[in-house]
Amino acid sequence: MVVLRKLNKNNLEFRINTVLARYVRPGQKICVALSGGMDSVALLHILDKFRNAMDIDLSAVHINHQLSLNSSEWEDFCRHLCDEKNVALTIAQVTISPDGMGIEASARRARYDVFRHLDAHFIALGHHLDDQAETLLLQLLRGAGVSGLSAMPTLRQIPGEPGLLRPFLDEPREIIRHYAEESSLKWVHDESNDNIGFDRNYLRHKVLPVIGSRFSAYRETFSRASRHLSESRVLLEDLAKIDAQEAIVDGQLDLAVLALMRRARQKNLLRYFLNLHSFGAPSAANLDDMLDQLLNARSDSQVLIQLSVGQIRCHKGFAHVIRDTVKPAGWEILWSGEPELVLHPIDSLLVVKKTIGLGVSRKKLLSGVVQIRSRHGGERLQPDCRRPHRTLKNLLQEAAMPSWERSLLPLIYCDDILVMVPGIGINCDFQAKPEEEGIVFEIVRKNTV
What we know:
Elements: H1 12-23, E1 29-33, H2 38-50, E2 57-64, H3 71-85, E3 88-93, H4 103-115, E4 122-124, H5 129-141, H6 146-149, E5 155-156, E6 163-165, H7 173-182, H8 199-214, H9 218-247, E7 248-249, E8 252-254, H10 255-259, H11 263-276, H12 284-295, E9 304-306, E10 310-315, E11 318-323, E12 332-335, E13 340-343, E14 348-356, E15 360-361, H13 362-365, E16 370-373, E17 380-381, E18 390-391, H14 392-398, H15 403-406, E19 411-414, E20 417-421, E21 425-426, E22 437-445
Parallel strand pairs: 1-2, 1-4, 2-3, 4-6
Antiparallel strand pairs: 5-6, 7-8, 8-11, 9-10, 10-11, 12-16, 13-14, 14-22, 15-22, 16-19, 17-18, 19-20, 20-21
Helix pairs in contact: 2-7, 5-8, 5-9, 9-11
């Protein structure tokens, strides 16, 4: 990407051009998150001026949250603006469900769900320096930790999703307003931004002006503090990764290793462990309570810690995270020789590998119809040819399989004969002999790390 040298180095366009040159390559797709407000309109205006010279594939998305009586007018405004500029526009209408999160947080979640599925390399957002300062102060008042207090990055990239690009992030709101007015831009006004019943608006209209009257450079100072906290967050993540090399085995947390650490390091690792399993960070109080329960658990105790959409369970000195799933009723899936078979009822993958002298006899198994079934109770298996058939219940108990795994265990049958239970054993009559072609079945849980 080439910086347009003819621009005045002291103006907003030059600085935004410099930001784009740092991150965007020619031909890449940038989609502007266009609310119709001043910031997003100014951002679209600048990117539209640059798109030919910088070879930007420019589009826009307007998300109608359906929270205002004027939302249809804002949608029309964005449509007309994009028509004038010959910019392709996507309109997305979303329904906000607070679910205990509050309207602001729920609306943000809905927006980012839309962004995630757009055909673009980058979503350009209108966040600016004042937004950065407001967010830091708001998070401080909520008692957030290092992660919550970290600065919004100019570019946030998540594998497989469009990057979130914030070209205005180092610019104060007034600089953007001055540019928009000088350029004779028109925009819509969201009346909810005047409602000081919202915490962010209260800070913006009542608190920060008072701070600014005494500390005129507070925006830059807050931003610098947030960047320092971002660096600290990265260091904490690096430390957690180092600790995880010894403490996390096959997605399970070794409680003996955890117990040897200092309290702060234990909490840091537990946050990292939950994040590995795609659970959000718990509150400080909940994190302390979880840690106390895990560290005080006996090796044979049945610890159960309820999470938002799952549980932490302990088994033989390890903590397991189990995501909530609907317990399946009786089910059956036929196997026709595929190397992999998705077992939707238990959210798992059956992986099949060919062997010699191990596993199930391929010849005997393929002589009939192969069925993968759920447990019903009363099953019997003879994995040891020197011993009689035994109940599957007893075999599972001897294997010390965690109780929550047993109901999700798939059983492999051939013509209604129980042939194999993964992790437990193979029926004596179906075991592959030395030098005979065999098949090994492995179960991979989709909700484990």
